[in-house]
Amino acid sequence: MTTQHVHTHVDVLLTTSARQDVDAVYDALATAFPATAGREPAQESSAAAGGAPGHPKVWAIDVDAMTRAAAESRPSPLAGAVSVGISGCPVFVHQVRDVLEDVFEAEELGHVSGDQEEEIRLRLIPRAH
């Protein structure tokens, strides 16, 4: 059994109160990484308010970054700011970050590098029109 394929998967965690923002980020990632299509975002947990409407929720997307498509994702509107955590193999984490920065207005909040893994924190914000 080989574990090489597992290293191409990148964990993307989104924190937002707007489901349409989760869908916009998922659509951008599924377009850029076709093997991600069909892996719907999973709600991980809710903020302290216990999932009350309007309170942020955490959504997980498993991105198979080995399947990078030649087609580019189109910019998508966001209703509000979305916090994003991207973790995995540095090469693939950077590919996912690049896609998000191309599609959305993005601000890097920080990163942590390990021996074989990297985590990047971004904030995606609606583009000014």
What does this structure look like?
This protein has 129 residues and is of the alpha+beta class. The chain has 2 helices and 6 strands. The chain has helices at residues 19-32, 90-103; strands at 9-16, 42-46, 57-64, 82-88, 105-113, 118-125. The protein has a 6-stranded antiparallel sheet with strand order 2-3-1-4-6-5, with helices on one face. Helix 1 (19-32) packs across helix 2.
Quaternary: single chain
Gap from first CA to last CA: 50 Å
Radius of gyration: 14 Å
Outline the low-pLDDT stretches.
1-5
3D shape: globular
Overall residue-averaged pLDDT value: 85
What's the helix-strand series?
EHEEEHEE
What's the arrangement of strands in the largest beta sheet?
2-3-1-4-6-5
Q: Assign the structural class, choosing from mainly alpha, mainly beta, alpha/beta, alpha+beta, or little secondary structure.
A: alpha+beta
Tell me the major beta sheet.
6 strands, antiparallel
What fraction of residues sit in β-strands? Answer: 25-35%
How many helical stretches? 2
Helix percent reads 10-25%
Number of strands: 6
